Amino acid sequence: MAELGFAFMDCEFGGLDPERHDITEIAVIVTDYRLVEVAEREWKVRARPDRITEEAAAISGYDAGRWAEEAVPVRQALGELAAMMPKGKTVLPAGQNVRMDVLFLERAFKNCGIAYPFDYHVVDLVTLYYSWSLVTGEAVGGLSLRQSATAAGLAEGVVPHRALADARLTLETFRHYIGRLAPRRDEGLAPVPTGETGR
User: Fold this and answer.
1) Rounded distance, CA 103 to CA 149, Å?
2) 159: closest CA among 125, 128, 135, 130?
3) 143-199 pLDDT tens trace
4) SS3 for 110?
5) Angle between the 74-84 and 98-112 helix axes, to the nearest 10 degrees?
6) At what angle do helices 163-180 and 125-136 cross, to 10 degrees?
7) What's the average model confidence in pLDDT over 34-43?
8) What pTM was estimated for this model as a whole?
9) What are residue 9's DSSP bridge partners?
10) Is 24 exposed, middle or buried (0-12, 13-18, 19+ CB in 10 A)?
């Protein structure tokens, strides 16, 4: 699987509808197939005020004055994001409920006329966290990043919505649960005889 890479990403938006709301922030941490980090970047993205709801701004920390000073055009952010992707690798988007990020990014790349740089498969922390709960028999109270990170001992209380912080917490939480799903030898179990699958 050495030809694979992952882009642990988080985006903030002006709302939840990619047809009506703009991306306000993008963050990505690129890893190789072993989850070893190779690059990290974050962008504040210029957004149209009429495409940012008050609720979304409050949740994500969007501030019109700060964005006016620090944000870059979406085309610039997407171009720099695409240029980060390792050459010759198939890069999968990864994240917490990453389907939502992909919806917004696919639309933005298309509108800007920039080739979408990611594979069509995705890797989602939600699936991993729920799989861990089934394997261990641990009940889960929810599937949010806060819930999975808190259960992993990596967060306490409210998890603020900030793109790079969320991407980082997602990657660390992903690593936590991968480690707990690793195969373990159990000397108390008899080996499965040759030719049998154990099913």
Assistant:
1) 24
2) 125
3) 999 999 999 999 987 777 899 999 999 999 999 999 988 665 554 444 444 444 444
4) helix
5) 110
6) 30
7) 97
8) 0.88
9) 28
10) buried
| Domain 4-180, second-level architecture | 2-Layer Sandwich (3.30)
For tokens 């992707």, what's the residue? 85
* Res 41: pLDDT: 98
- Read off the tokens for 161: 């919505």
Which residue is associated with the tokens 């699958």? Answer: 197
Sequence letter at residue 183: P
Strand, helix or coil for residue 3:
coil
Beta bridge partners of 97: none
Whether 160 contacts 1, CB under 8 Å: no
CA–chain centroid gap for 111, Å, is 22
CA–CA gap between residue 58 and residue 11 (Å, rounded): 15
Task: Tell me how far apart the alpha carbons of residues 152 and 148 are, in angstroms, rounded to a whole number.
Answer: 6
Burial class (CB in 10 A: 0-12, 13-18, 19+), 12: buried
